[in-house]
Amino acid sequence: MEFKYTSRSVDDTVRIAQDIESEKFPNMVICLYGELGSGKTVFTKGFASAMEIEETITSPTFNIIKEYPSGELPLYHMDVYRLEESDESIGFNDYFNKGGISIIDIIKNKLPEERLDIKFKVIDEDTRVLVFMPHGEEYEEICSAVL
């Protein structure tokens, strides 16, 4: 099952992220897919602001994992694009069970079965289509409630 949302501005992307955040739960995993500049970090910033995270959210491209512990739940923002599929040295699977929220930019394997995938498709300078693909009943309920 897929759900689609058309964002016509940065504010729209922030708003849908905040709506998804309102349904959050410990150990939630959200995987973001899309080209550079498609809105993945904007989504994460919106989600983090709704969680009352005080730190400035930036892309974790050069850090791989950024931790934001100051909100309602810890937020783990990961960009694992550069990791090899067999790379276990980071231990990011451990983050999926730490009681926080994991938002992951681009990952191949090693994902938990239950998660929410969001693909960002650039339409024009301002417009993005976000395709939500829930994996698991809890994520399907979130999409049904929000979208």
- Specify the biggest β-sheet: 7 strands, mixed
Mean pLDDT equals 88
Q: Say how many strands there are.
A: 7
Task: Identify low-pLDDT runs.
Answer: none
List keywords for this structure.
globular, single chain, 3 helices, alpha/beta, seven-stranded mixed beta sheet, 147 residues
Q: In words, what does this structure look like?
A:
This protein has 147 residues and is of the alpha/beta class. It is built from three helices and seven strands, in the order βαβαβββββα. It has helices at residues 10-21, 40-50, 137-146; strands at 3-7, 28-33, 65-68, 75-79, 101-105, 115-122, 128-135. The protein has a seven-stranded mixed sheet with strand order 1-7-6-2-5-4-3. The longest helix is centred in the N-terminal third of the chain and has 12 residues, at 10-21. The protein is globular. 33% of the residues are buried. The model has no long low-confidence stretch (mean pLDDT 88).
What is the structure about, briefly put?
With 147 residues, this protein is an alpha/beta fold. The protein has helices spanning 10-21, 40-50, 137-146; strands at residues 3-7, 28-33, 65-68, 75-79, 101-105, 115-122, 128-135.
Architecture blueprint of SSEs:
Elements: E1 3-7, H1 10-21, E2 28-33, H2 40-50, E3 65-68, E4 75-79, E5 101-105, E6 115-122, E7 128-135, H3 137-146
Parallel strand pairs: 2-5, 2-6, 4-5
Antiparallel strand pairs: 1-7, 3-4, 6-7
